[in-house]
Amino acid sequence: MRLDPRYTEFRPAPDLLADRVVLVTGAGDGIGRAIARSCAAHGATVVLLGRTVEKLERVYDTIRSEGGPEPAIYPMDLAGAMPPDYEALAERCGSELGRLDGLVHNAALIGVLGPIEHYSPEAWQELMQVNVNAPFLLSRALVPLMHRTASAHGHASIVFTSSGVGRRGRAYWGGYSVSKFAIEGLSQVLADELDGSVRVNSLNPGPVRTRMRASAFPAEDPQTLITPEEAARAWLWLLDARDVHGQVLDAQIP
Ligand code: NDP
């Protein structure tokens, strides 16, 4: 697999996202960290949402050392967050940042890989909470602010992070696969409702050199995979692509 030329040939201006605000979930590691850095490197103020504060602080330091706008750290464990926590987040984004141009649903758990008949109900619930309920609650809370942003500035974009097993079920991928099908569904329903006023798309990164990938494929040589930084080009493209809405996209091609 390799990055789609659409993204490798993309030549973003350094100020592509200047003055814009982008929230990235799971911004402390893997693909989310790379998306956050890439958005900041192109001028965005990034809200770094994640559960491990030390990781978010390291990303904050990296963005500052790379000359990006000061990011905001928003510690939040999506496994335990309740609806009022999402309302509080939306309230703070509105009052302190005044706009939200991009929402990147990236955080996810891979959970247990094994047969459904051995899947523990507790593990299933936690996975659905992080992978499905959290993107629903975040979208629900933040769409009004994104509507206002799109009305004022002509543009806002929500990106759901999918997976190949969210488009075709595969044995032993359990709740993770099911959760990614749900993400595709949420993306399509929201896209149909919002009708392009706020753009909504799903993006499957394909195999990327991260901790999650290594946990699922321990025998694989990570050097054969694209890096999170390479993958992040696809998110940057999608955050800016003004005529792309309601699409089911892949970052990589065979
Ligand atoms: P990683 O495991 O490397 O990173 C996942 C991020 O999500 C981490 O920052 C993690 O935080 C965060 N996260 C997990 N649980 C929670 C939680 N309860 N609350 C808040 N944050 C949480 O994964 P990847 O970077 O590989 O994956 C990113 C996205 O890409 C996921 O949606 C994944 O499903 C998708 N994907 C990845 C592929 C790949 O090959 N890597 C392939 C297909 C899809 P912490 O660091 O604190 O654990």
Q: Could you provide a short overview of the structure?
A:
The chain is of the alpha/beta class and 254 residues long.
Care to describe what's here?
There is one protein chain. This protein is α/β, with parallel strands linked by helices and 254 residues long. It is 46% helix and 15% strand. It contains 8 helices and 9 strands. Strand 2 (21-25), helix 2 and strand 3 (45-50) form a beta-alpha-beta unit. The longest helix is centred in the middle third of the chain and has 33 residues, at 121-153. The mean pLDDT is 97. The structure holds NADPH dihydro-nicotinamide-adenine-dinucleotide phosphate.
> End-to-end distance, in Å?
4 Å
Q: Work out the helix count.
A: 8
What does the main sheet amount to?
A: 7 strands, parallel
Question: Mind telling me the C-alpha Rg?
Answer: 17 Å
Q: Percent range for helical residues?
A: 40-55%
Strand content: 5-15%
Quote the average pLDDT.
Answer: 97
Query: What order do the SSEs take from the amino end to the carboxyl end, as H and E?
Result: EHEHEHEHEHEHEHHEE
Per the principal axes of the C-alpha atoms, what is the gross shape? globular
Topology of helices and strands:
Elements: E1 2-3, H1 5-8, E2 21-25, H2 30-41, E3 45-50, H3 53-65, E4 72-75, H4 83-97, E5 102-105, H5 121-153, E6 157-161, H6 174-194, E7 199-204, H7 211-216, H8 228-240, E8 248-250, E9 252-253
Parallel strand pairs: 2-3, 2-5, 3-4, 5-6, 6-7, 7-8
Antiparallel strand pairs: 1-9
Helix pairs in contact: 2-3, 2-8, 4-5, 5-6
The protein binds NADPH dihydro-nicotinamide-adenine-dinucleotide phosphate (NDP).
NADPH dihydro-nicotinamide-adenine-dinucleotide phosphate binds at residues 26, 28-32, 50-52, 55, 77-79, 106-109, 130, 161, 163, 205, 207-208, 210-213.
